[in-house]
Amino acid sequence: MLRASDASPLVPPLREILLIATGPVALLAEEFARIDGIEAAFLYGSFAARMRGVTGAAPNDIDVMVIGAPDPESVYRACDRAEEWVHRPVNATILTPDEARGDSGFLDQVRNSPTVPIIGGEQWS
Fold first, then answer.
1. What does the DSSP 8-state code read for residue 104?
2. Within a 13 Å sphere around the CA of 103, how many CA atoms are in the beta-carbon half?
3. Residue 27 lies in a domain
4. Nearest Cα residue to 40 out of 19, 64, 59
5. How far apart are CA 117 and CA 9, in angstroms?
6. What pLDDT, on a 0 to 100 scale, did the predictor assign at position 120?
7. Using an 8 Å Cβ cutoff, are 38 and 66 in contact?
8. 90 and 83 in contact (C-beta within 8 Å)?
């Protein structure tokens, strides 16, 4: 097993780069696991697209879809904590399962764009 030496001066900045680039999924999974009522959660938008290899401008923020009936304040506080680690806004959209199954231009765009699962696997609709 390969492991970084915590004594190395390179570890803190490398850890920060990794958290900023790919850490939201792990951080949010850990945060959301503590919140009752979340049935599914995933990244969408430009950050998810970049993680899935779609070229484009660097994302300014991270969009998170949460499906279920969680306490909204708990979700927003979890996103705030993740935001501190990744140094960019983490924006949550919370939908009930019925709302997520609905029809709208927004939901069609999300369904037809790359997503990255956090909780609940690949399928969300």
1. -
2. 0
3. no
4. 64
5. 33
6. 86
7. yes
8. yes
Residue 71 within any structural domain of the chain: yes
At what angle are helices 72-86 and 11-32 packed, to 10 degrees? 170
Strand bridging mode 62-68 / 90-95: parallel
CATH code assigned at 111? 3.30.460
Please state, in angstroms and as integers, the Cα–Cα distance from residue 15 to each residue in 47, 60, 71, following that order: 19, 20, 31
**Helix (H), strand (E) at residue 41:** strand 38-44
The set of long-range contacts for 99-105, using a CB threshold of 8 Å and a minimum separation of 24, is 100/40, 100/65, 100/67, 100/124, 100/125, 101/125
Residue 30 belongs to some domain of the structure: no
Q: What is the per-residue pLDDT for 35?
A: 97
Q: Lowest-pLDDT range, 3-12, 22-31, 76-85? A: 3-12
113, 45 in Cβ contact below 8 A? Answer: yes
Q: For the residues 58-70, what does the mean pLDDT come to?
A: 95
Provide the domain limits for residue 58. 36-119
d(CA 122, CA 116): 7
Give the count of domains, the chain.
1
Residue 91 placed within a domain: yes
